[in-house]
């Protein structure tokens, strides 16, 4: 069976707000297939002014705290960018893409199936690095 990427209806450029963007990222993340032990925290980072668009940068920090280690040894970040075009009609939806820390690969919500393994790999690599130091 072919997998259909889960997505949400993103807001239009004219209705975009910074907090609304963060809430939509939260809504989109809720479609990801991750174990309930993962906790995350999202935040707005900054606004970037470009010639033909404005970009709004967000970070979602992931970790798996446990009863024995409530403060996790490492975290994994997923960075989101919401882009508002200055030349396309305001009634079009915002453009959204995201990437994981330590990766240059850019994902689009409508084309990507998020993998929990990506978060695990980042955290495992950080722990291996810390133990080797």
Explain briefly what this protein structure is:
By secondary structure, this protein is of the alpha+beta class. It is 22% helix and 29% strand.
Characterization of this structure:
The protein is of the alpha+beta class and 133 residues long. The chain has one domain (13-132). The protein has helices at 18-29, 116-132; strands at residues 39-49, 53-63, 76-85, 95-100. It has a 4-stranded antiparallel sheet. The N and C termini lie far apart (45 Å).
Indicate the topology:
Blueprint: H1 18-29, E1 39-49, E2 53-63, E3 76-85, E4 95-100, H2 116-132
From the N-terminal CA to the C-terminal CA, the straight-line distance is: 45 Å
The helix tally amounts to 2
The tally of strands reads 4
Shape: elongated
The share of residues in helices is 10-25%
Q: What would you call the structural class?
A: alpha+beta
Strand order of the largest sheet: 1-2-3-4
Q: Write down the secondary-structure element order.
A: HEEEEH
Largest sheet: 4 strands, antiparallel
Strand content: 25-35%
Mean pLDDT: 93
């Amino acid at each position: 069976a072919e997998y259909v990427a889960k997505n949400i209806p993103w807001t239009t450029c004219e209705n975009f707000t910074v907090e609304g963007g963060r809430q939509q990222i939260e809504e989109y993340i809720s479609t990801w297939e991750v174990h309930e032990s993962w906790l995350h925290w999202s935040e707005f980072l900054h606004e970037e002014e470009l010639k033909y668009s404005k970009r709004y940068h967000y970070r979602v920090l992931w970790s798996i705290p446990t009863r024995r280690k409530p403060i996790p040894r490492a975290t994994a970040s997923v960075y989101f960018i919401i882009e508002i075009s200055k030349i396309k009609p305001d009634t079009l939806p915002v453009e959204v893409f995201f990437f994981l820390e330590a990766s240059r690969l850019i994902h689009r919500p409508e084309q990507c199936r998020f993998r929990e393994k990506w978060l695990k790999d980042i955290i495992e690599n950080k722990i291996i690095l810390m133990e080797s130091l």
